[in-house]
Amino acid sequence: MAGKKNKKLKIIDLFAGVGGLSSGFRKAGFEVVSANEYKPDIANTYIKNHPETKMFIEDISKIKSSDLVNGEEIDVIVGGPPCQGFSMAGRRIRNDGAFLNDPRNELFKEFHRIVKDVRPKVFVMENVAAMLNMHGGTVKDKIIEIFKEIGYETEVRVLLAAEYGVPQLRKRAVFIGNRIGFSPKDFFPNKTHGPLCSKPFVSVGESILDLPKILSGAGEFESEYLNSSDMTSYEKERKSNSKKLYNHQSTKHDKRIIELLKNIKPGQGRIHIPKELQTKSIHSGAFGRLEKGKPAYTITTRFDTPSVGRVTHPVSHRALTPREAARIQSFDDDFIFYGNKSSIGVQIGNAVPPLLAKAIALKIRSVLDKQKND
Fold first, then answer.
1. What integer is the mean pLDDT of 250-259?
2. Given the residues 32, 42, 55, 83, the one annotated as active site
3. Which residue range is the domain that position 184 belongs to?
4. Could you tell me which of 235, 80, 266, 79 has the C-alpha nearest to residue 165?
5. Do 244 and 180 lie in a common domain?
6. Are strands 122-128 and 31-36 parallel, antiparallel or unpaired?
7. Model confidence over 99-111: pLDDT tens digits?
8. At residue 62, does pLDDT exceed 90?
9. Is 83 a catalytic residue?
10. Is residue 309 in a domain?
């Protein structure tokens, strides 16, 4: 009986990317039975960091639900199907069957199919926060309705990663549904960080400044840590299981860009650049330098390019390295990213922050444990 009580809860991760959701759920004590990622280079990083999980590298429409289950009882299905079809749904969304049968929503349809086939107790579906306002909220309402038709009571909320210990002002829409009789509200985690919480937001300075200071174009795929006696608790947690430092390599910027960055103070950006150094960039956050005492803005897939946003190091005259971006995303240092520069940018920028995923997973686990004990 004791063995059954301690049995790990099991999940499937769809549209997994490198496994930000998988990492968080694993930290919360879940076992990731299987995962799906279409792009081989991204799946390779997933496999090397989650060797115990069965990875399916192919079009999700070609995968049988039974293969994903692998003979296990699945408690939770998680995933973030791309949302192109949602943004273009338009008036057709109200027509019977049109939303689910629209070919532009094919990936959402596959997520829905697997939830319907596998019948997990709970599902978690994340997406861009803007989805909730698409077409006056009708997209959100239709998704909730579609899952209700297969027995899942669902709620959606926008979660701010910084409120769960991630040093980043990243917002994601999170749908959580269950078929076991609980209010869907019960599955959302309580905020732990911020002005109204016992802990303040974790800042950029608290998350990356222990890493070796390197210049533009410097750094190696594998290097050594510097001895640091004044690491923050966040930095210690990220480093705890890693003996070597990986992915701490800076993009080599043009000399003119470096001179430009030298004129930008923390919190400043494009509008503070001297006229003689101005560029044609029209991005509102272009050349923005991060502030040590605040969380970062959303880490995008091009965090290595100063002209695309607020991604300049708070002290050094360069953009973030992949390891710094991964720290701000809350990946531990023993999570290693593989592939070329642009692929690694996509891998890190598109991931769900593991600490946000962990907060969701811990709350789900507490509800499922309560169900088991009732």
1. 93
2. 83
3. 7-194+353-369
4. 235
5. no
6. unpaired
7. 556 666 788 899 9
8. yes
9. yes
10. yes
Distance set, CA 264 to CA 76, 146, 217, 257, 312 (Å) = 46, 49, 19, 11, 9
Confidence of residue 2 (pLDDT cuts 50, 70, 90): very low
Are 114 and 219 found together in one domain? no
Burial (CB < 10 A; 0-12, 13-18, 19+), residue 40, is exposed
pLDDT in tens, 290-308: 999 999 999 999 999 998 8
Asked whether residue 257 falls in the same domain as residue 294, the answer is: yes
Clarify whether residues 20 and 158 are in a common domain: yes
Kindly state whether residues 162 and 231 are assigned to the same domain: no
Q: How many domains does the chain have?
A: 2
Backbone angles phi, psi at 159, to 5 degrees: -105, 135
Q: How many CB atoms lie within 10 A of CB 100?
A: 16
- Sign of the torsion angle spanned by Cα atoms 198, 204, 209, 212: positive
- State the chain's mean pLDDT as an integer: 90
Q: Is the pLDDT of residue 90 over 60?
A: no
- Enter the tokens of residue 312: 């300049």
Reading the block at residue 324, the tokens are 């710094």
